[in-house]
Design a protein that fits this description.
26-stranded antiparallel beta barrel; 6% helix; mainly beta; disordered C terminus; single chain
Length: 971
């Protein structure tokens, strides 16, 4: 294998050397003439003097630099960018001069092309430079006053899930940045909901290295996918901001404010918002099967700053968040047993109020050219109060075969001897609970790097500290009744308890990293980290039933007399980990190879007490984690990346203890001293290429995950009580494979654009089902193949945009033990959206999508949902103000149903959400820039400006009204 890799590297190097031996490279930098700022993604072409045909081309990188290769000869160098006058230069290349410098090339603004409408019609939707995807904001029409979330939904390859998670080409976005600086600590939700589209020139998506990897070059596996926003030219030289107030039907309201001061490399922003609309956005451009669950009221206030000098780069933010969620749920599930199934239905009410404060700071200091110091402290505090109620029942056959509405027969107070489900009912449970919790967290990281020479030798120290203090108070009032044996006192279980759970955690770590160059472009890398964690967790359980206590009462003065040692615990962990890493990095002009291995000896001490059981346990384990990353650059616009990473993980110490937790008689858990460590293999292949002349890009992403000795659960079902006993156990066979292919291209005249996003995912899930007859575990396997395609076509000119979109997702589901549950559901959608700019500063935006489900065994899931949203906006005061009228889910069709399938169960849930409604928005933007040209550019951004708006909610037409079983509750 080593010989093969060595021969492969030699072959690549030989091909590379031969290809480059007879080429000349022209390099340079493209800047804006007025501001001398670099122009990103400017097109650079070498043309033939005879017929002006393109010989080769490239685009500028994030710093405005470019490099174009060609054979010796005569050429015309053309540099162009939308909105600027093109520049032409003639060159004669000689093989005796392998590199030619074109110097700095300034581009002057084209007064005609600067009009936004023309830019929108011609700007490329997506382009690629090295490992960075770049999206032009002006190529995507969004409703007036839209936030960043609306733009992200339209990006090719982007997925915005119902919980707000954003994925770009299958990778989850972890941070939002503005001009390369973290915005509110990189918090994704804050950026999506509060950054207006109108201030964004470009969106760049790339994998950002950790501070350690960026400074030392050592890959620590901690890179994050980020969205980096480039602010429009001229908007970084003064004050600008917006205010948005809106009211709507069904007592909906929304308000948002943002003020910014940008000056060269200094940023300062203040934001504030409040709404009760779920803040979902103007959901066009594709299917969204349900809106965020429940009724959500949110408030937020924060400030962010960032500044940079020659030696200092610092930034930070502070923000306060408040949320109030009122959730109503109805669900049913089928748990697969070795013989037959168990069925459960549930009604639930949930009300949670949460307050949080977050502070983060970042300082990077370069005292000299050889030293780099980074300091990152952060602080957070969170408190919450939660009230919840649930009604549930377990049945030994499907209750829907008897009645159409089994969820109406879950309240114990309403059941009598004539209720229709009595013959199949196994248990019923009514629970009420109240929780209060508070958590304080303090963390800090200090990193010091010192270069020992200019050839790559460096040494780095990184220290980390973390402290977390959490306390939770839980009050429970629960009643469970069993029906499968004769009535006696044991057939009813009453649980009235108070549980206090304080948790403290301290973490310290120190890491020393060294890199040594041993040849040109070849480095050896070594790292050692020592980390220590101390954790104490106490759970004190008090039985209050004998005191006559009910939920809502004060705790009895002598409640401590009800202490239950069998349901209480006291655990103290001391954890020491050594992480020793060794690897190498090989860097060549066309490719880069990183490979290494990490070994991790661990020592864990656990002191544990629960009732009469007490133990002091010591565990010594050995983990290892190999890694490899290979990147081959065909050009600045085309590259291939292959990555492998292995990771071993140990089961939790408490899972290894031979103890049983029966605090919930319907969900009893047991430890397993025989658990083994698991090992996960992850492999990724990523390829992209881009043609700037045709504005055509291709992206391919493949991923494979497999886990050896995965920790699953062995589940024993008690037919008499309907409860289950679960025990963690190792199992093999869990793996999944994912593939994605993205294609985006402008058509001949650049006004038409098509993009396709195809993906395939295969999941192989295994789990144990306990066989009551043989008293052994039977292995069950479920497989799920998903094939999906999203296709979008868009026409744009200077006043009109029209898009057609279609999506198809097919699922092939199989269960080894329960083939009768096999099904092949699929969903598809199709629709259109348009944005029209009318005279008199008026715009109309609308989208219409028909979403369809088919193939589900549950007929209630097979349905059509025609979703229609629209907005009419009128701007006045020279574009400084906008008044808009918006309607969401006009046809009252959007549902809130979710569905999951595992090797153990099938689950369907339905939640309340915001029904269709209307909103009236007033948006006002203001600006005070340093020059007249900057102010003119701001005004040219079109009506609506930097306004903020939220979008449509969703709702299910026949669901419970907002507020649930009796309206919104207070506590």
């Amino acid at each position: 294998m080593r010989k093969f890799l060595f021969v492969l590297l030699l072959l690549i190097a030989a091909i590379n050397a031969f290809a480059q031996s007879n080429q000349v490279t022209v390099v340079g930098k493209v800047v804006e003439k007025d501001t001398n700022e670099p122009i990103i993604q400017a097109t650079v072409q070498l043309l033939s003097p005879k017929d002006s045909s393109m010989i080769n081309g490239n685009v500028t990188d994030a710093n405005g630099n470019f490099a174009v290769h060609a054979k010796p000869g005569k050429y015309i160098l053309k540099v162009s960018y939308v909105g600027y006058l093109s520049q032409f230069k003639q060159y004669t290349f000689s093989k005796n001069r392998p590199q030619v410098s074109a110097g700095t090339i300034p581009l002057s603004a084209d007064a005609i092309m600067l009009k936004e409408a023309v830019v929108t019609a011609e700007a490329p939707m997506v382009s690629v430079s090295k490992d960075t995807m770049m999206y032009s904001s002006s190529a995507y029409r969004t409703p007036q006053g839209a936030m960043l979330e609306e733009l992200v939904k339209k990006l090719p390859g982007a997925e915005v899930s119902d919980d707000g998670t954003v994925k770009i080409n299958g990778k989850e976005v972890k941070k939002i940045m503005v001009d390369g600086k973290e915005f509110f600590g990189g918090d994704v939700s804050t950026g999506l909901k509060n950054l207006p589209v109108d201030m964004v020139d470009r969106v760049k998506a790339y994998d950002k290295k950790s501070d350690l990897a960026r400074i030392t070059g050592i890959d620590d596996g901690e890179e994050e996918t980020v969205l980096d926003l480039t602010v429009k030219k001229g908007m970084n030289q003064g004050f600008f901001g917006n205010a948005d107030l809106s009211v709507g039907t069904k007592d909906r309201y929304s308000g948002r404010m943002m003020m910014n001061y940008f000056k060269d490399r200094t940023q300062f922003s203040v934001i504030g918002s409040a709404n009760n609309t779920n803040d979902q956005g103007f959901s066009g451009g594709g299917p969204r099967w349900f809106s965020p669950n429940g009724l959500n009221a949110r408030k937020m206030l924060g400030a962010n700053f960032a500044t940079e000098t020659e030696k200092l780069d610092m930034g930070g933010s502070i923000r306060y968040n408040y949320s109030d969620q009122d959730l109503i749920g109805r669900g049913y599930s089928e748990r697969f047993l070795q013989a037959g199934s168990s069925y459960a239905n549930t009604n639930s009410l949930y009300r949670a109020k949460t307050n949080s404060i977050n502070f983060d700071y970042r300082l990077e200091w370069k005292p000299d050219s050889m030293t780099n110091i980074i300091f990152r402290p952060n602080f957070s505090y969170r408190s919450s109060k939660t009230n919840s109620e649930s009604q549930s029942a377990t049945f030994d056959s499907d209750p829907f075969d008897i009645i159409a509405n089994p969820n109406d027969y879950l309240n114990l107070d309403d059941l009598d001897s004539n209720e229709p489900l009595k013959s199949i009912r196994v248990n019923s449970s009514n629970n009420r609970s109240h929780q209060k919790s508070g958590s304080t967290s303090i963390n800090a990281t200090l990193q010091v790097n010192r270069k020992l020479n200019n050839k790559g030798r460096n040494i780095t120290f990184r220290g980390r500290f973390g402290y977390t203090d959490t306390e939770n108070d839980s009050y429970t009032d629960a009643l469970t009744r069993y029906y499968q044996f004769d009535y006696n006192p044991d057939s009813t279980n009453i649980r009235r308890r108070y549980i206090n759970t304080p948790v403290n955690n301290y973490t310290y770590s120190g890491r020393l990293t060294y890199s040594e160059p041993i040849a040109k472009g070849l480095f050896l890398q070594f790292s050692y980290e020592l980390s220590y964690r101390h954790n104490t967790s106490v759970r004190s359980t008090y039985d209050l039933d004998n005191f006559g206590w009910r939920l809502g009462d004060r705790l009895p003065e002598n409640y401590k007399d009800g202490f239950d040692p069998s349901l209480s615990k006291d655990a103290t962990y001391d954890y020491v980990n050594h992480d020793i890493q060794a690897g190498f990095r090989l860097i060549r002009k066309k490719y880069q190879l990183d490979a290494g291995i990490s070994v991790q000896p661990q020592n864990t001490k656990l002191s544990y007490t629960r009732g009469t059981y007490s133990t002091d346990t010591v565990r010594n384990v050995f983990n290892f984690a190999p890694n490899m990353r290979f990147r081959y650059k065909f050009s600045n616009l085309s590259q291939l990346e292959v990555m492998y990473r292995g990771r071993s993980s140990q089961p939790g110490m408490e899972n290894l203890l031979p103890i049983t937790n029966d605090s919930n008689p319907l969900n009893i858990t047991m430890g397993n001293p025989g658990l083994k460590p698991s090992f996960t293999h992850t492999m990724r292949v990523f390829y992209n290429t881009y043609n700037p002349e045709k504005q055509r890009g291709i992206i391919t992403h493949l991923m494979f995950n497999a886990t050896q000795n995965a920790i699953s659960n062995s589940t024993m079902y008690n037919e008499s009580t309907g409860g289950r006993i679960t025990q963690p156990t190792n199992i093999n066979g869990n793996w999944n494979a994912f593939g994605m292919f993205g294609f985006n291209s402008a058509l001949k005249n650049k006004k038409f654009n098509i993009n396709s996003f195809s993906r395939a995912n295969y999941m192989n899930n295994v789990a144990y089902l306990y066989n009551n007859a043989t008293k052994t575990d039977d292995r069950n396997k479920t497989t799920n193949l998903t094939l999906a395609e999203n296709l979008n076509g868009t026409y744009r000119n200077n006043w009109f945009e029209f898009s057609l979109n279609g999506a198809l997702e097919y699922n092939w589901e199989r269960s080894a033990l329960r083939p009768q549950n096999n099904q092949e559901p699929y969903t598809y959608s199709y629709g259109a959206s348009t944005n029209i700019s009318l005279p008199w500063d008026m715009t109309i935006s609308t989208n219409l999508t028909n979403q369809c489900r088919r193939g589900y065994s549950d007929s209630s899931m097979n349905r059509n949902e025609l979703i229609w949203n629209t907005q009419i906006a009128q701007s006045f005061f020279k574009g400084a103000a906008t008044l808009s009228f918006e309607m969401y889910d006009i046809l009252h069709n959007q549902s809130t149903i979710s569905r999951t399938l595992t090797a153990e169960l099938r689950n369907v849930n339905e939640y309340n959400s915001i029904n269709s409604y209307c909103m009236v928005h007033f948006i006002y933007k203001f600006s005070l820039f340093g020059s007249k040209e900057a102010r003119n550019r701001f005004e040219r951004m079109g009506p609506g400006g930097l306004g903020g708006r939220r979008g449509p909610g969703g709702g299910r037409p026949n669901g419970p009204p907002p507020g649930g079983f009796g309206g919104r509750r207070t506590f």
